[in-house]
UniProtKB/TrEMBL annotation, chain A:
It comes from Paenibacillus zeisoli. GO terms for molecular function: cytochrome bo3 ubiquinol oxidase activity; cytochrome-c oxidase activity; heme binding; metal ion binding. The chain crosses the membrane at residues 20-41, 62-81, 101-127, 139-162, 189-215, 227-255, 275-298, 310-332, 344-368, 380-404, 416-440, 452-474, 494-519, 594-612, 618-635. One of its GO terms (cellular component) is plasma membrane. It catalyses: 2 a quinol + O2 = 2 a quinone + 2 H2O. This is Quinol oxidase polypeptide I. One of its GO terms (biological process) is respiratory electron transport chain. Belongs to the heme-copper respiratory oxidase family. Keywords: Cell membrane, Copper, Electron transport, Heme, Hydrogen ion transport, Ion transport, Iron, Membrane, Metal-binding, Respiratory chain, Transmembrane, Transmembrane helix, Transport. Residues 40-562 form the Cytochrome oxidase subunit I profile domain. It is found in: Cell membrane. PANTHER family: CYTOCHROME BO(3) UBIQUINOL OXIDASE SUBUNIT 1, CYTOCHROME C OXIDASE SUBUNIT 1. Its cofactor is Cu cation; ferriheme a.
From TrEMBL, chain B:
GO terms for cellular component: cytochrome o ubiquinol oxidase complex; plasma membrane. GO terms for molecular function: cytochrome bo3 ubiquinol oxidase activity; proton transmembrane transporter activity. The chain crosses the membrane at residues 21-45, 51-70, 82-103. The gene is cyoD. Pfam families: COX4_pro. Keywords: Cell membrane, Electron transport, Membrane, Oxidoreductase, Transmembrane, Transmembrane helix, Transport. Its main location: membrane. InterPro entries: Cyt_c_oxidase_su4_prok (IPR005171), Cyt_o_ubiqinol_oxidase_su4 (IPR014210), Cytochrome_c_oxidase_bac_sub4 (IPR050968). This is Cytochrome o ubiquinol oxidase subunit IV. It is found in: Cell membrane. It is a multi-pass membrane protein. The keyword Repressor does not apply. The lineage of its organism: Bacteria, Bacillati, Bacillota, Bacilli, Bacillales. GO terms for biological process: aerobic electron transport chain; electron transport coupled proton transport.
Length: 660, 110
């Protein structure tokens, strides 16, 4: 009996590595600390009522933000582990298999569990406010999306201490990811973690598409909509068409592993190349999913801090919509070397270069907006200014990679690693950080400290170049990606070692930047400058017309929109002495909180965990739980209520009393 | 939702299909699922015929889903439905056609 238990435990838990034992201990201690704090301060009901069951887009956004910052930490630690291992030749810091697991979890977490939720955080925190709406189109679904994402992410992260991490790369190519080559449970964690959170991502895409099409304030025609909302629309369109491809591809891989099917195996008619083809049909659009909202953020930030209308609004809209469609026609540039016909490579090389055109248009529009503007260098503006040169270089190296014959040299080398980090960090991460700094006062009611923020910015920005510029050279010198170590011959004689060492220093500078940001947030919570006006930056769009943080119903009265930059117009009218129409409150229709999204996601987690270990006694009850939750929702009719007028009056009086 | 309507009441008062149309749709989709299953399980047709039948059944299934469950004909202004449907078809054609084109190297290599 004891023997059996010991046997089970030694395969169930990951053992043997001191790093992992350290993680075990810290996870256990953190969990105990959280439970203790919640119990000691009697916060359990608060947590349940105000957060876990909430359907308020602002709170869901905050939860997304916290989760994504935690994931940035985890992914960042992975990155530093790898950079430490590569700092010098023949390092013995990580073993080969451990290195494989670390780059796999780093890539997957950064894209799916860091970038996506940080983007959803901004969707939720900003879009309804920009549109003058009181919530998203489907608040219940919104909460469900969040909990599915979180449970998927938890399942994926659990693999670190239970069962073993996936280690077949962030896209899990077969045949390596097939049962024959990866018999452990790691790939199952990968599949189910992504599938469960993927349902949530798809639902969020639908939710924001409908919100933008249907919930705009009266008078806000599509072409009067703020550009961030346009970017969310284009990103949502891509999500809706791309995520199903990912779901199907991973489902087929699961069938291979679980039922012994042969979609992607080497034998019996299977073809692993088909997986590569399919996964990139999602994978390429995915990079546009995450970068388009960053473009939207830059458009808002540049206009606000140049005190000018954005230059070329129509071309901005047109180029984003164009990108969202053309992004579906470039996927094969990720496997030029697969051996498809020359015609295939020519087509995809050209389509890839074509997509650079609308992107270039946008860069010029930002520059022209700043030209002769009254520019103030605030934190959001700093990140935007850091982004422009970084993204321009990243785009240029992207066009180099798009030259199919040349790609035979660059493919899977450190040149590629440097390129995609340049667009992902310089474009996506800088963009989201600009957005977070910009809307932070709206969300939390105080600004983030400037001095610490500038430190963080410069550490990130300099660290970035120090880390990734040497990698372009390393790529040319023959260093391939996913390489866990190199000898002193290549290290010293060929000169890889000095460049790698510099690169590692850069990575740690960025880590230091992150620490400054944590410091900045915790400092500003206590001492940050409070935002009492609701419009700390002199904004142009509707979210700045209401107090910060916004009251639960956002807008006491539906705003009437006549132009783009609607709030700017109101301010101009006020300056001219035009009196706003007297307000008359009406009861506000609001959705009720619900526990179903949380419970259903927990059931999905249980089902997913069961499938990972092939434990049907666990998977089936989990799925039954999901079905029960669906039924329960279908038969619940008491889902909404009205906020009475006197309550609105009281809230507004309190808020406005403070602001005006 | 909070502003205009709840999930149940629609401004224009259109309905979400009748029980009858749901039952018909359900029967259609079951039949369309069983046909390929029977063909494959009993080896009734040769390989090409089987593949073609499965594909035809799949397309019919798609149409049934769109009309009986997704209410493609409803909505005050079906413009959005039509637009998304067109984009959807373009993407599907790209996926299928693009994959065949890209993967055809396989037959030249072997
Ligand atoms: C914070 C600074 C970062 C550093 C220092 C860093 C470092 C690294 C390193 C060392 C690798 C492994 C290279 C190899 O051995 O092949 C890697 C891979 C990767 N990184 Fe990062 N990274 C950072 C941020 C990010 C971000 C923000 C993203 C995405 C949003 C990202 C996405 C990826 C992906 C997709 C891979 C490929 C994983 C694979 O080969 O399967 N990284 N990164
Ligand atoms: Cu791509």
């Amino acid at each position: 009996m004891w023997e059996n238990i010991k046997d089970f435990a030694s395969t169930f838990f990951v053992t043997g590595d001191p790093l992992i034992y350290g993680a075990d201990v810290s996870i256990a201690l953190t969990s105990i600390a959280i439970v203790f704090v919640l119990t000691y301060f009697k916060k359990w009901t608060w947590l349940w009522r105000e957060w876990i069951t909430t359907v308020d887009h602002k709170r869901i956004g905050i939860m997304y933000l916290i989760a994504s910052l935690l994931m940035l930490f985890r992914g960042g630690v992975d990155a530093l582990l790898m950079r430490t291992q590569l700092a010098l030749p023949n390092m013995k810091f990580l073993q080969a298999d451990h290195y494989n697991a670390v780059f796999t979890t780093h890539g997957t977490i950064m894209i799916l569990f860091m970038a996506m939720p940080m983007m959803f955080a901004l969707f939720n925190l900003v879009v309804p406010l920009q549109l003058g709406a009181r919530d998203v189109a489907y608040p219940f679904l919104n909460s469900l999306s969040f909990w599915l994402f979180l449970m998927g992410a938890m399942l994926f992260n659990l693999s670190f201490v239970i069962g073993g991490s996936p280690d077949a790369g962030w896209l899990s190519y077969p045949p390596l990811s097939e049962l024959s080559h990866s018999p452990g449970v790691g790939e199952n964690f990968y599949i189910w973690g992504i599938q469960i959170s993927g349902i949530g991502s798809l639902a969020t895409g639908i939710n924001f598409l409908v919100t933008i099409l249907k919930m705009r304030a009266p008078g806000m025609k599509m072409m009067k909509m703020p550009l961030f909302s346009w970017s969310v629309l284009s990103s949502s369109i891509i999500i809706i068409f791309a995520f199903p491809i990912l779901t199907v591809t991973l489902a087929l891989l699961f069938l291979d592993r679980f039922l012994g099917a042969h979609f992607f195996t080497m034998d019996l008619g299977g073809n692993p190349m088909m997986y590569v083809n399919l996964i990139w049909m999602w994978g390429h659009p995915e990079v546009y999913i995450v970068v388009l909202p960053a473009f939207g953020i830059f458009s808002e930030v540049v206009a606000t801090f140049s005190k000018k209308k954005i230059f070329g609004y129509n071309s901005m809209v047109f180029s984003m919509m164009l990108i969202s469609i053309v992004s579906f026609f470039t996927w094969a540039h990720h496997f030029f070397t697969m051996g498809a016909s020359a015609n295939v490579n020519v087509f995809f090389a050209i389509s890839t270069m074509v997509i650079g055109i609308p992107t270039g248009v946008k860069i010029f529009n930002w520059l022209f907006t700043m030209f002769r503007g009254r520019i103030t260098i605030t934190q959001p503006m700093l990140w935007t200014l850091g982004f422009i040169p970084c993204f321009a270089v990243g785009g240029a190296t992207g066009v180099m990679l798009a030259v199919a014959p040349a790609d035979y040299q660059y493919h899977n080398s450190y040149f590629l690693i440097a390129h995609f980090h340049q667009v992902l960090i310089g474009g996506v991460v800088f963009g989201y950080l600009a957005g977070i700094y910009y809307w932070w006062p709206k969300v939390f009611g105080f600004k983030l400290n400037d001095r610490l923020g500038k430190w963080a910015f410069w550490l990130w920005n300099i660290g970035f170049y120090v880390c990734f510029m040497p990698q372009y050279a390393l790529g040319f010198m023959g260093m391939t990606r996913r390489l866990y170590t190199y000898g002193s011959d290549t290290g010293w004689d060929l000169g890889w070692a000095p460049l790698n060492l510099i690169s590692t220093v850069g990575a740690f500078l960025m880590g230091l930047g992150f620490i400054f940001q944590v410091w900045q947030i915790s400092y500003s919570i206590r001492k940050g400058e409070r935002d009492l006006t609701g419009d700390p930056w002199g904004g142009r769009t509707l979210e700045w017309s209401i107090p910060s943080p916004a009251p639960m119903y956002n807008f006491a009265v539906e705003p009437q929109v006549t132009t783009d930059d609607a709030w700017w117009k109101v301010k101009e009218d006020r300056a001219k002495g035009i009196k706003p129409a007297p307000v008359k409150y009406e009861p506000i229709h609001m959705p009720k909180n619900s526990a179903i999204p949380f419970v259903m996601s927990v059931c999905w987690f249980i089902a997913g965990f069961g499938f990972v270990f092939d434990w049907m006694w666990m998977a089936i009850p989990g799925l039954i739980g999901v079905a029960i939750c669906l039924l329960a929702r279908s038969f619940s009719y008491d889902t909404d209520y009205y906020i009475p007028v006197d309550e609105i009056e009281r809230t507004e009086a309190a808020l406005r009393g403070r602001t005006v | 939702m909070s502003q205009h309507n709840t999930g149940h009441e629609h401004a224009s008062g259109e309905s979400h299909g009748s029980l009858k149309s749901y039952v018909i749709g359900f029967i259609f989709s079951i039949v369309l699922t069983i046909i390929p299953l029977v063909i494959v399980m009993n080896g009734l047709l040769n390989k090409t015929q089987t593949v073609i039948t499965i594909m035809i059944m799949a397309v019919l299934q798609l149409i049934v889903q769109l009309f009986f469950f997704m209410h493609i004909r409803e909505g005050e202004k079906p413009r959005w439905n039509v637009m998304t449907l067109i984009v959807g078809i373009i993407i599907v054609l790209t996926i299928v056609g693009g994959s065949i084109w890209i993967m055809s190297f396989n037959s030249t290599v072997q």
